[in-house]
Design brief:
By secondary structure, this protein is an all-beta fold. It is built from no helices and 11 strands.
């Protein structure tokens, strides 16, 4: 079965960086585009970044463009989200996604 397991979240000060990872299993990872979403309590889950199956194409939400980078390692079935210049408004639970499949999420808190 499809499994997506995120890690790398935590507490960071404004201006800091974090790198999220999502390890996938149960499908041929290199055949699928992958996405990162985020959600705050009481809010909707919103798209943060997408990457094509080969990794040659990426798309970022306007709110994170220039600060976040999405990448993948198909040999390791892993997709990454490098988050730089973090702001308090980036605080959310971050989810890895492939179509209808979701990971359990990893919490990112940006606070001084």
């Amino acid at each position: 079965q499809v499994q997506l397991v995120e890690s790398g979240g935590g507490l960071v000060q404004p201006g800091g960086s974090l790198r999220l990872s999502c390890v996938a299993s149960g499908f041929t990872f290199s055949n699928f585009a992958m996405s990162w979403f985020r959600q705050v309590p009481g809010g909707e889950r919103g798209l943060v970044a997408q990457i094509t199956s080969s990794g040659s194409g990426t798309r970022l939400a306007d709110s994170v463009d220039g600060r976040f980078i999405i990448s993948r390692d198909n040999a390791k079935n892993t997709v990454f989200l490098q988050m730089n210049s973090l702001k308090p408004e980036d605080t959310a639970k971050y989810y890895c996604n492939r179509n209808v499949f979701w990971g359990q999420g990893t919490q990112v808190t940006v606070s001084s």
